[in-house]
TrEMBL record:
Keywords: DNA-binding, Transcription, Transcription regulation. Residues 1-122 form the HTH marR-type domain. InterPro entries: HTH_MarR-typ, MarR/SlyA-like, WH-like_DNA-bd_sf, WH_DNA-bd_sf. It comes from Paracoccus mangrovi. Pfam families: MarR_2. This is MarR family winged helix-turn-helix transcriptional regulator.
Amino acid sequence: MTRTIRAGFESRVQQHQGLTFARARLLVTIGHNEGASQAELAAALGIETPTLKRQLDALEELGLARRKPLPGDARKYAVHLTDTARIEPLLGFRAEVENALIDGIPPEDVATTRRVLARMATNAEHLQRAEGDERDKP
């Protein structure tokens, strides 16, 4: 299912901006975290900073994002969308996919599924933190 959604997403965004799924994901994340640092964006996406840097370089080449030095630390940059960046087609596609995926499913079942998945995500984060704590012990 994920591959099908990703393929549809890539097809849609390439028509609009020539974006890949990963770059479009970054673009949406920047839109929701305007002015965040590269490290903050990488953390939000769950990717390494060098990977984010390559994706951000591509968005800058497309004229969709820009980096501005953070005051007080010339080594760090705040990331912003440019005036030409348009995330509405991306967000619109997300809504279309969500509506298609839940078609024919009773609203109460969708709500239960969302609650269960949110709890599973929280549990996974706790598990990851617990494993990290175990590795840090002498």
